[in-house]
Design a protein that fits this description.
By secondary structure, this protein is an alpha+beta fold. It contains 7 helices and 15 strands. The strands form 3 sheets. Strands 4-3-5-6-7-8-9-10 form an 8-stranded mixed beta sheet, with helices on both faces. It has a 5-stranded mixed beta sheet with strand order 12-11-13-15-14, with helices on both faces. The termini are far apart. The structure holds 1,6-di-O-phosphono-alpha-D-fructofuranose.
């Protein structure tokens, strides 16, 4: 089976980017190990602190963030980091060529129930003019990313990644510690009969999503004239992995509750990397009013509405706007 290194080389990734990705993934392998130790290592449960988003941090949030931060800072390849678990950007090497954004442990409420969780990341070039503690260089649209992906800590640890030449899926071979290519050039089926949305938020959705979901639920008797199934993992990595693998539509739409939080998901380290993966696999990714990858961020923890997945289904959803 092909190794990650040769796939990255075949995709034309520059050597320094390959080395950075391998460094980042070395951190993810350590997270995979810590996660698998669970209660035996005392890593389950919450800390007493909250992150900048006002969410209670799980112990594994803090551990994963520290692992990635340390390994990336030591590598020398990175000028600065933005993380879900850090209020501000983390300055690294002033001569580093790359910026890395990550959610170190997505879906962390799943840690205590031994369910799917993962790390989501995105990499872009660091402008030469930028000082390592300057957040403004992170305020660029997803179209500027040079690589993005996630590692899913599930029954197998799996990596989905793109450097702009297709989306590939790898599986961690724990016998020798490397990621091996298990599905090249993923193509998301254009049609689907499966959707993912947290319906407990229904009363907070805008009218287009209310109408769209009502029509899906109406099934064969409704205007869509087919029965749909619903899945919700409560970890975006898990839901997106399913959509990449067998198609579907994933929605975390605009939420009327708080105008400062137009959705739940964060642009830099959740929406953009997933949108990049989805588009490279032939799917679509929208905010409802435009392409996610073209949103110009105004701050590093910005939230956006997210509608992504199978091309024809996303188009059908957008037709309700
Ligand atoms: P965390 O990153 O704080 O663990 O949150 C996970 C998440 O942002 C995303 O992965 C899920 O899709 C979503 O939250 C689930 O949210 P609900 O609370 O609405 O199920």
């Amino acid at each position: 089976m092909k190794r990650l290194n040769s796939q990255l080389q075949d995709d034309g990734a520059p050597m320094e980017l390959i080395l950075l990705i391998r460094t980042l993934l070395a951190g993810c392998k350590e997270i995979a190990f810590r996660v698998s130790q669970g209660a035996l290592a005392g890593v389950l449960g919450s800390t007493l602190s909250e992150n900048v988003q006002g969410e209670t941090q799980k112990k594994l949030d803090v551990i994963s963030n520290q692992i990635l931060k340390d390994i990336l800072k030591d590598s020398g390849y990175v000028k600065a980091i933005s993380s879900e678990e850090e209020d501000d950007v983390v300055p690294c090497n002033p001569d580093g060529k790359y910026l890395v954004s990550f959610d170190p442990l997505d879906g962390s409420s799943n840690t205590d129930i031994n369910s799917l969780i993962g790390t989501i990341f995105s990499i872009s070039h660091a402008p030469q003019w930028m000082k390592p503690d300057d957040p403004s260089a992170f305020l660029q649209p997803g179209t500027q990313s040079v690589a993005a992906g996630y590692v899913l800590y599930g029954p197998s640890a799996m990596l989905a990644m793109t450097t702009g030449r297709g989306t590939h899926i790898y599986t961690l071979d724990k016998t020798h510690g490397g990621f091996l290519l298990t599905k090249a050039n993923v193509q998301v089926p254009e049609q689907t009969a499966e959707f993912a949305i947290n319906t407990s938020n229904q009363r907070h959705w805008e009218e287009p999503i209310q109408n769209y979901v009502a029509d899906l639920i109406a099934g064969e008797d409704g205007p869509r004239e087919k029965d749909y199934n619903m899945r919700w993992v409560a970890a975006m990595v898990g839901d997106i992995h399913r959509v990449l693998t067998r198609g579907g539509i994933f929605l975390y739409p605009f939420d009327k509750r708080n105008p400062n939080k137009p959705g739940k998901l964060r642009l830099l380290y959740e929406a953009n990397p997933m949108a990049f993966l989805m588009e490279q696999a032939g799917g679509l990714a929208s905010t409802g009013t435009g392409r996610i990858m073209e949103v110009m961020p105004t701050e590093i923890h910005q939230r956006v509405p997210v509608l992504l997945g199978s091309k024809e289904e996303v188009k059908a959803c957008l037709s309700y706007y």
